[in-house]
Amino acid sequence: MSLDLSRERILLTGGAGFLGSFVLEELVRSGARPEAIRVPRSATDDLREPAAARRCVEGCSVVIHLAANVGGIGYNREHPADLAHDNLLMGIHVLDAARAAGVRKFVQVGTLCAYPKFTPVPFREEDLWNGYPEETNAPYGLAKKMLLVYGRALADQHGFPFIYLLPTNLYGPRDCFEWERSHVIPALVRKCVEAVESGTQRIEAWGDGTPTREFLYVEDAARAIVLATRLYEKTDPVNLGSGEEISILDLAGRIAAACGFRGELVWNPRQPNGQPRRRLDTTRAAQEFGFRAQVAIEAGIPRTVEWFRGHRG
Which end of the chain has fewer CB atoms < 10 Å from its terminal CB, N or C? Predict the structure, then answer.
C-alpha cells in the first residue's frame, strides 16, 4: 500500500544538505505538508548523541535518514576514523530512537562505497557481502553497511519497518564544491570554470582517468527516495542509479567542454583512482517502486556548471 505522506510527520535528517534539500522539495510535491517535515541542524542537534536523536524523532511517524559525515576520496583518506565513528553513531542512535518511538517507516540511505572493491559489473544487491570495499572508502562504506545489518536485525526481532537504499554517485546543483570535501564532478567543474576565468591552460585531475563511474542526477535521486518511502516495504537493499557507465577520462572531457575549458588536463597517477568500476543493476528499483532515471549525464553536467557559475560567493 502507498504511504499517504499528507498524513505523516516526517523527520528528514540531512535535509539541509545537497541531496536532502531536493528530497525536501520532492516530499512536498508528493503531498507532504511542509509544516510536518522536521529538518534538524547539526549546530543544535548532534545526532551522535542519543538524546539529540530522541528529541529529533519525537512525534514523527516517518524517518528518512540522510545525515552523514561524507566527502570525496581525499577527505576519506584523511579522516577514516571520523567517518567510521560519526556515521555509525548517528545511524544507530536515530534507528534506536525511531524504534522506541514506533515510527511507521524508516528509510536509511546507504552508499555504493559499501560494495566490494572488485564487485562484478553491473553491481547487484546480492553481491554486497562478497568482499571488502575499496580501501580508501572502506571506513565510511562499512559504517553505512552496518546500518543495513542493524536495521534488518531490528526488523527481524521487533518488526521494525526498515528499508535501505543504495544511491550511486550523485551530482547536480547545490553540490559541495569545497576543495576538501568535493567529489569528482564538482571538483572538476570548479577547476575548469576557474581555469577559464583565470586563463590557466593546465589543470590537474587525480588518478589516471581509467576508472568508470555511474552518476545519478540529484533530482532523480530525490524522486527515487520519495518513491521508495511511499511504496517499498522490504528490508532487501535497493540500488538507485542511472545505468550509464562513464570513464573518468570521458567525464573530464565532457565537463571541460561544458565549461569552455580548452587547455590541457594533466592526470596525476600518484593520487588514488578509487574503485576500478561502478555500474549498477537497477532492476529491483524499477520492479519494486517504478523508479527509472530521467536526466542523462549530457543534460545534467551543463545544468551543474550553470548552477555553480551563478551561485558562487
Answer: C
Task: Check residue 131 and give its pLDDT.
Answer: 96
User: Domains of the chain (ranges plus CATH)?
Assistant: 5-174+214-245+277-295 (3.40.50.720)
Taking 70 as the pLDDT cut, the residues of the chain under it are 313
C-alpha neighbours within 13 Å on the C-beta side of residue 55:
13
d(CA 22, CA 222): 6
The two beta strands, 169-171 and 202-206, are unpaired
Please classify residue 217 by burial: count the beta carbons closer than 10 Å to its beta carbon, then call 0-12 exposed, 13-18 middle and 19+ buried: buried
Alpha-carbon dihedral sign for residues 11, 13, 15, 16: positive
Which pLDDT does position 313 carry in this prediction? 64
Q: Would you call 140 a catalytic residue per the annotation? A: yes
**Cell representation of residue 136:** 580508501
| CB atoms inside a 10 Å sphere around CB 3 | 20
pLDDT in tens, 237-274: 999 999 999 999 999 999 999 999 999 999 999 998 88
Catalytic residue among 75, 115, 132, 140: 140
Taking Cα atoms as reference points, which of 301, 284, 313, 296 lies closest to residue 127? 284
d(CA 88, CA 146): 7
Name the residue among 280, 242, 267 with its Cα closest to residue 191. Answer: 267
| pLDDT at site 65 | 98
Contact status, residue 290 vs residue 240, Cβ threshold 8 Å: no
